[in-house]
Design goal:
heterodimer; A: 465 residues; alpha+beta; Alpha-Beta Plaits; 8-stranded antiparallel β-sheet; 5-stranded antiparallel β-sheet; 14 helices; B: 269 residues; alpha/beta; Rossmann fold; 9 helices; 7 strands; globular
């Protein structure tokens, strides 16, 4: 050709632009100045791998602590959000890792498909869901998100792309599930959506006076697709662990309350978007105000049955943008633990007593039954109960959480890395006894530890004892 | 979180455009990525044209899943010159028309390059490539398409200009001049097609939050590409002529154009 294409405009091997940003997780603590990249093409990722810096992928930043922080390089996945294919007969969706659950709902719910497993917010990415092996209100029946993942593509440190499934590269498959993004970048995921009849859940609300009553009622969880309980972690004495159970099944079209809803069962009721316009002052949330809130909440939820739309049932807090600002600029942590059935009652009582007597206030906490664990060495859930609660950041919180960690460990429990900002390397090792299996695979996939995060350094996740 | 909000119903227009074909040139650009989603959502069938075939395949697959839209792709090279330019563009245009059985309803030209001003100022090859991509290829494609639309007497031609084309500025004037030339070119085409009912739309965006601008410091009125895409769709539906996006740029640029040259030349931006 007489006039060849000029090579300098070729984007093939150009390093993408970077922007330095103060980043934090959803809990807003810790905050770190990170160099961020925002690739728009898969090819840009390969260019990044050639840079002599460590990297961690970041989806929508909803992990609470330091899982998606890394000062030398954070790879924002938000523009790698393309769908590749959807099979209407099997429900298998094939998409890039940066696709958000919100987008999946927007596009597929009107066609009668919903996420097989969803956390309490729809503002998570598919890649993040896999890397954290997220669970939802149906864990006791359906397990984690990865149960519905057929395969995924993993971009590893040497620039290769591994297709991972239970059959193909199974080690990389299981190490990446719950692997907190440390095995590579999840570029593409194939997973099954779930067919639903409507965008509503038929919910049984049940108010129970204390923890024992709640645990006893959980025994019938098998009858429900979804089960979760809000518990008042400031109640004490005989009311310790008083709770509102919220358990439900997908609503059929006939069960919907209005003719309009029966006509278009996948239309979610429109809600005015609300937001938190500014950081609340630190004193706004104190043990007294939270205690009052919890009492009102408990009183407002008598035992009843109701048809509730998906947004209200699965994502109550998404209706309030930036709700994390109510904890003020100091930020907060979410403490989530799993405890095995054998020791969960004793462990929960000890944790709740510790919290309700400490002055470390928390809004309603969440209690739920977990089903069985899967094969992934770092996946969080196992058979038992899980407790999650938000605690505002204070100077003495790290020491207090250390005490909670001791209680958790003593009852053979573990903390959830997607929420964690504080656990020590020693406690982490004790909580995740299969760490060395994971390390072996990590070292094969990423011998020079190209993929690292503030969480991985804090936990010394690649080091032996 | 605005990226994830559902499209509101008032935004969604009636399904009248099914099977209407739009050719989008520069389909892998930051603006086009958002624009093609918006076009597909409004039920247009699309022919995507760009150089990066692999990326176009990715975008096409995405649109098919999202909007069940009919999408075709076509290779286009903006930076060739002279004889090759003409030969390629005629072949390209004919192929595009063939793909939609001669029923092309709209053309959107989005392709452009913006190398650093400094590099362009000292390297002719860089300047020339910019002139080729941002201007010469537009002349060539508009010659072909104006004739087609003149004959068809329906549809639209839209091209992405820039606020940088309204007034020359030290930091960006070679790029700006290509956009200024495009602006006049579009004015001429608009007058030429005025009697035919074909709308000729010049879009003038300010800085947009794309890979091109990511990491640049303090850009005024930086908007997400989705916002620009919505503005372009509205311009198409309402048959607008010159659209600034976001809208305040019209006022800003009008005022800036009133500054006497004697003052302008001393201004530091």
């Amino acid at each position: 050709m007489l006039y060849p294409t000029l090579p300098f405009i070729s984007s093939h091997f150009k390093m993408p632009n970077s922007a330095t940003k103060n980043l934090a997780g959803w809990g807003r603590v810790p905050t770190e100045e990170c160099r961020t990249f925002r690739p728009e093409k898969q090819r840009d990722l390969h260019a990044l791998l050639r840079e002599p810096i460590t990297l961690i992928a970041r989806g929508l930043g909803r992990a609470y602590g330091d899982a998606a922080l890394n000062p030398s390089g954070v790879v924002l996945q938000e523009r790698l959000n393309r769908f590749h294919a959807f099979d209407e007969s099997s429900g298998v969706l094939d998409c890039e890792g940066g696709v958000s659950f919100a987008e999946i709902i927007e596009i597929f719910l009107p066609r009668g498909w919903f996420l097989p497993v969803t956390p309490g917010t729809k503002f998570v990415s598919v890649g993040g869901a896999l890397a954290c092996d997220i669970h939802g209100k149906n864990h006791h029946r359906e397990g984690t998100f990865s149960n519905f993942v057929e395969s995924f593509d993993l971009l590893i440190a040497d620039g290769g792309v591994l297709r991972c499934s239970r059959e193909e590269n199974p080690d990389a498959f299981w190490a990446t599930i719950g692997g907190m993004g440390l095995t590579g970048i999840i570029t593409r995921v194939q997973f099954r959506l779930r067919h639903v009849q409507s965008a509503f859940v038929n919910v049984d609300y049940e108010r129970v006076e204390n923890l024992d009553a709640a645990l006893e009622r959980f025994d019938q969880d098998a009858d429900y697709e979804y089960s979760v309980a809000w518990i008042d972690c400031l109640a004490s004495g005989n009311s310790l662990g008083r709770a509102v159970l919220m358990r439900g099944r997908d609503a059929s079209v006939e069960e919907l309350s209005t003719p309009a809803a029966r006509e278009s069962p996948f239309v979610l009721p429109a809600k005015k978007p609300k937001g938190v316009p500014l950081d609340f002052p630190d004193f706004a949330l104190n043990p007294l105000s939270i205690k009052a809130f919890n009492a009102v909440y408990y009183a407002a939820h008598p035992t009843k049955n109701a048809i509730v739309d998906f947004n209200s049932f699965f994502y109550p807090l998404d209706a309030i943008g930036n709700w994390n600002r109510i904890y003020g600029a100091r930020g907060f942590i979410q403490y989530q633990v799993a405890l095995p059935f054998e020791s969960s009652r004793a462990g929960l009582i000890e944790l709740l007593e510790k919290i309700s007597s400490s002055g470390h206030a928390s809004f309603l906490a969440v209690l739920k039954t977990f089903g069985n664990a899967n094969e992934a060495p770092l996946s969080f859930p196992f058979a038992g109960h899980t407790l999650a609660l938000d605690i505002p950041m204070t100077d003495d919180l790290p020491a207090f959480v250390r005490e909670l960690d001791e209680i958790t460990l003593r009852h053979n429990g573990r903390v959830y890395l997607a929420k964690d900002a504080l656990v020590s390397p020693e406690n982490f090792r004790a909580m995740y006894p299969r760490l060395n299996e994971w390390q072996e695979i990590k070292n094969q996939l990423d011998p020079n530890h190209k993929f690292a995060s503030s969480l991985s350094r804090r936990l010394k996740i690649t080091e032996n004892e | 979180m605005t990226n994830h909000q559902s499209p509101t119903t008032e935004n969604r227009l009636p399904n009248t455009d099914r099977r209407r074909w739009v050719l989008v040139v520069g389909a892998t650009s930051g603006i086009a990525r958002a624009l093609v989603r918006e076009l597909a959502r409004h039920n247009f069938s699309l022919i995507l044209a760009a150089r990066d075939g692999e990326e176009m395949e990715t975008i096409a697959a995405d649109l098919r899943v999202r909007a069940k839209a009919e999408i075709k792709i076509l290779h286009f090279e903006a930076t060739t010159t002279g004889f090759v330019r003409e030969k390629n563009d005629v072949a390209f245009w004919n192929e595009a028309l063939e793909m939609c059985s001669g029923e092309l309803h709209g053309l959107v030209l989005c392709h452009a390059i913006m190398p650093e001003q400094e590099l362009a100022a000292r390297d002719w090859k860089t300047s020339r490539a910019m002139i080729e991509a941002n201007y010469a290829s537009y002349v060539s494609l508009l010659n072909l398409s104006a004739a087609y639309f003149e004959n068809r007497a329906d549809g639209f031609i839209a091209a992405i200009g820039s606020v940088a084309g309204d007034r020359g500025r030290k930091g960006n004037y070679i790029y700006g001049s290509t956009k200024a030339a495009l602006s006049v070119l579009m004015q001429g085409v608009r007058q030429r097609l005025a009697q035919t009912g074909v709308s000729v739309i010049t879009i003038k965006p300010g800085p947009i939050d794309t890979a091109m601008t990511f990491g640049m410091e303090k850009l005024p009125l930086l908007v997400p590409p989705e916002r620009v895409a919505r503005d372009i769709l509205r311009a198409i539906r309402q048959k607008k002529e010159i659209v600034y996006t976001p809208a305040p740029w019209r006022i800003i640029m009008t005022l800036l154009c009133l500054v006497p040259e004697n003052f302008w030349k001393k201004m530091k931006f």
